[in-house]
Amino acid sequence: MEKSTEETLKKVADLVTPAVTEAAIAKIKEDTTLKKTIFANGAVDAEMQEQKKAAAEAFKKLGTGQVKSLTVGGSTSGAELVPTYVASEIERVAAKNGLVRKFGRPWPMAGVKENIPTASSVTAYRVNEGVKITASQPTTGAVSLSAKTVGVLIPVSKKLIMGATPAFVERLNELAGEALATLEDKWALLGLAANEGIFQTTGVPGVILGSGDATYAKVEAEDLLDCIDKIDPDSMDERLRWVMHLSVFNSLRKQRAAVSTDKQGFLLQGFGQSAPPTLWDIPYSLSGVMPKTSETAGDQASKKFIALANFGHVYYGNLGSFTFEISDQATITDTDGSTLINLFEQNMVALKVSAEMDIQVGSPTLAHSYIQTAAS
User: Fold this and answer.
1) Nearest 5°: CA angle at 56, between 52 and 58?
2) What pLDDT, on the 0 to 100 scale, is given for residue 131?
3) Which domain holds residue 87?
4) Low-confidence ranges of the chain (pLDDT < 50)
């Protein structure tokens, strides 16, 4: 490049740079949203750290008996409230880990019992001039929510909680949130009792594998198509998704078009390639609560193991917020179901996180289906 050209370009750059910089600064000053995006992160992080610190201090007071009883909404002893961070963090962790929280339909409950009205579709008709339109009437019903108590009880050494740090409090929140998310997904998919969840709700249609296919690994891609056929077309929307265990998904990934002649001709993707985002154009989620192929083979016969659920018709009702209580006086049952822990004698405290909620499956005959193994 000639010297004169270089000098010209340098002069242009010297003129343009300040103008661009000043314009950019002016733009940032005028754009409130942009200012928040650029400058707010530090303030948000600092505020979160303060919340974590406050939560840790609250746990120390609880553990040493300086505060007798606390809840999110108020304190039975008239003492301070549990920091907002604790409640919001458990909600965040549950939403991050749970399918019901991610995709289900939340329903705030005004009372212990609440009915959600439902109605089937109506029919439209085309008629000629002077011909009457045929009447059609929807079939009405209701999904009944009845709040039930769910909770987590964590015994902790008093010495440990007296030295509580923000990291310790955050870990307790994670444990509680993960446990609640797991319970909610089991409730919505497997069902915790008769007529609950996709697998136990009366009326949900399903597909049974062929004779001899009595283990989960026997599922084939065509079985998923048969499962789709059980869903009413009007119920197929963006909230419809497969749910299965990773091991079952891997059974599908192992399938090849020609095993003997093509060792890399996998149906889903080859080795080193990314897994597809959908199965037959329907997104999927892998969940640890679903049945897995490593279960005893004899226990897999006649068992439901893949769900095709429309989470828009899975309702979870919340009655208020989480409640936090701590005690050093109670005697609780250990994880083995029989050993008793006397908190006072063993210098321990127990943290209880509880809530009132319900999960119900709506439109069971239309919006959901499942795949089940053969009897033998």
Assistant:
1) 115
2) 87
3) 49-118+140-192+316-361
4) 38-39, 67-82
